[in-house]
Predict the structure.
Amino acid sequence: MGARPLVQVKDIVMKYHSLEGETTALRNISLDVFQGQFISIVGPSGCGKSTLLNIIAGLVKPTQGTVFVNDRPVQGVSSQVGYMPQTDQLFEWRSIWKNVLLGLEVQNKLSAETRESVRVLLNKYGLWDFRNSFPRQLSGGMRQRAALIRTLAIDPEILLLDEAFSALDYQTRLAVSDEVKEIITQEGKTAILVTHDISEAISMADQVVVLTKRPGTIKSIHKIVLTCKEHTPIKNREAPEFRDYFNRIWKELDIHVQ
Amino acid sequence: MSNETKDLSPEQTAYLRGVRRDKIKVILSQILLLALLLGLWELAATLGWINPFITSQPSGVARTIVNLYRSGDLFRHVGITVLETVIGFVLGTILGTLAAIILWWSEALARVLDPYLVVLNSLPKVALGPIIIVWIGSGPSAIVFMALLVSVVVTIIGVHAGFTQVDPERIKLLTTFGATKHQILQKAVLPGSIPTIISALKINVGLSWVGVIVGEFLVSKAGLGYLAVYGGQVFRLNLVMTSVIILCIAAALMYLAVVLLERLFIRWQQ
């Protein structure tokens, strides 16, 4: 691991204003993410974990504090950061090929070279034969893969996944998280995943960050070390340590049904 | 669901045949109902159950159509009305969509104009007839303006509502790519709203006809609305019924044209 973190979140405070008053969504969040790491952020609902992601993406300006990517402060969106929304958000009226080119098109970066790199990605991850299909003709898993390739097409250094699999049914979700993890590892990308699913967080990440309920602060950071042969999200769930991590994080989240 | 093999099982064949038979039954019944109504109307008029002077009768309508055709007036009247409607319809849709784009662009403007749109929408546009005549004069342009007026407000409200319903996550995705507002409009909002715009078109077809016919009632010297009013004034009910029946056919054809346009536009939905 390099000496300098790729993403540095420094003393972030986020306040929201509404007619009812002021809400502090995040308080004193500091976090370092290194090149090639996969970080999961879990927390009770409403703890501001998606807000944190929006701040890192440059979509929202924090009330206080700064996020640095490659030692440069984040001011607005940049193509260093790729964002994966909750649903695949493929445009129904565009073919898969046109969909995966969307980011490049918006950034005016369409060229023979970038098209070629997208072609390679589609080929590598089994979507080339479906390039002329429309999204509704693809299965949920394939759509998610297409959405990931759309994000990878702009060649970001960090991927932000905002509950990215929450719209899928459980079986598809397991398969997709396996695929996505594999692709992200193969492409050598750094990723931050926000989820409310503890198992998903542990099985995919090197590190799990637990946030407290609002105002969200970092409660703990768990380094995930699993002793199993294959490190895929599905296999990881079979590791003996998995349950310990799960129970510890579950207790820390301190969720009560009211 | 889908057929696994090419040769269908006898049950599937029977099912498909049943579906087709049901469809034919409905269509036959529809035609029969029309024939029955026309026949009964004709019979009642001939046998003197009803007074054809007041109610007209199908054979009278047919005669009137032939006469109008021979004098060359048929296509003149139909042509004028259809032209006015198409122009009003197209203008109403284009201007309404443009206004909706402006409102989408500036949320502040949309909020300011909201009560005005609500009032304009609930106002019966026909009441503006006298003002239109004074301002624009009594010609085809006044009629087109009336048709435009009737359809444009509904278009603005409907299409703008469609624009604002575009998934915010989708806009967020484009924003993370660094998209400008213009790109968001062009790549996500407009193409995503085509179904909304088409359903606005379907409503506008009917509304444009209302505008044109009311306009013709008020000012015109030609057209189907004029024929109906004129026929009423000189008590030639055959003429009134004729223009109503032609109107039915023309309006249905125009609606059909919009449905065809819809099929053309949203192939990706099928």
In short: Chain B has two domains: 10-50, 59-269.
